[in-house]
Amino acid sequence: MARVKLRSYLTILTLAALVPVAIFAAIVGANLVDQERKTFRRGAQEQVRALSTAIDAALKGSITTLAAFSLSPSLDAADLGYFRRAAENLLAGQPDWVNINLALPSGRQVVNLKLAEGAELPNINTVDGSLERLLQTRNPVVGELVMGPVTRDWDFAVRVPVIRDGAVKYVLSAVLKPQALSQLVQRQDLPDDWIAMILDSRGRVVARNLNSEKSRGQLAHPLLRDALAAQPGAWVSARSLEGADYQYRYLVSDTTAWAFVMGIPSATVNAAGRQAAWLFGLGLLGSIGLAVTLAILISRRISRPITSLASAVKAIGRGAEPQVPEEPRIEEIRLLASALRAAAKTAREREDLIAREKQALQAADRAKDEFLAMLSHELRNPLAALTAAAHVLKVADPVLESAVKARGVVERQSRHMARLIEDLLDVSRITMGKATLEREVLDLARVASNVVQTWRSMGRLEGARVAVQARPVWINADRVRIEQILANLLDNALKFTPAGQPITVSVRREGGDAVLEVADEGQGIAPDMVERVFDLFTQGPLGPDRGKGGLGLGLALVKRLAELHGGSAFSASEGLGRGAVFTVRLPAVDSLPEHQAATGHAKRSARPRRILIIEDNDDARQMLRATLALGGHEVSEAHDGRSGIAAAIKARPHAVLIDIGLPDIDGYEVARRLRSSTLDGKVGLIAVTGYGQPEDERRALEAGFDAHLTKPVEPERLEELIAALR
Question: Fewer CB within 10 Å: C terminus or N terminus of the chain?
Answer without folding.
Answer: N
